[in-house]
Amino acid sequence: MVWFLILLLPLGLIAYYFYPEKKLPLGKTVDKLIVYKSKRQMHAYSGDELLKTYTISLGKKPIGHKQYEGDNKTPEGIYTINDRNPNSGYHKNLGVSYPNENDIAFAQKMGKPAGGEIKIHGLPNSKGYIGKFHRWKDWTAGCIAVTDGEVDELYKTVKQNAVIEIYP
C-alpha cells in the first residue's frame, strides 16, 4: 500500500503540471478583470460574459489593502490596466494603475511612499518551468501572478484601460 502511494504522488504531480487548461476564446477582447483575493481567482470578462477564471498568486501578505511600498500586499479597489511590458523580468506584464489619489494620501499620512509597479505578470525569467506550481504559495511583492502562458493570452486580449476590480 505504501509503495502504491509513493508511486501515485509523482503521477498526480505530473498530471497536475501537464493537464491542459481552458484557453480564452479566440476573437474576444477582455475589458474587465475581477480579482477575488481570498479565492485566489481572477475572472476575465468581455462585457457581461465570463470568458475565463484564472488561479493566481498574490503578494506574500495577501490579507488587507496595500498601504505602502514594501508591505507585500496586493491592493484592493478599482483600477485600470494602464501599461504593458513585453520585456519584463517576469516574462511579460500588464500594469495596474495603483496608486490612486487615495492610496497616495493614505501612505503619506503614514509617512511612507505608496509604492507602485503593481502588475499582472508571469513567472520570473528563466523560471517558467515552475508553471502551475507557483500557485501553491503567495510569493509576489504585491502583484498578481499567473503562468507565462496565461500572461501571454492576457497580454494579447486585455484592452488598454480595461477595468480591474480587486476584492478581499
Shape: globular
Main CATH class: Mainly Beta
Please give the number of β-strands: 8
Instruction: Report Rg.
Output: 17 Å
Structure overview:
This protein has 168 residues and is α+β, with helices and mostly antiparallel strands. The chain has a single domain (29-167), classed as Beta Barrel (L,D-transpeptidase catalytic domain-like), CATH 2.40.440.10. The chain is 21% helix and 32% strand. It contains 3 helices and 8 strands. The protein has helices at residues 2-18, 101-109, 148-157, and strands at residues 30-36, 41-46, 49-55, 77-88, 91-96, 119-121, 144-145, 158-167. An 8-stranded mixed β-sheet has the order 3-2-1-8-4-5-6-7, covered by helices on one side. A hairpin with a 4-residue loop joins strand 1 (30-36) and strand 2 (41-46). The longest helix has 17 residues, at 2-18. It is globular, with a radius of gyration of 17 Å. The termini are far apart.
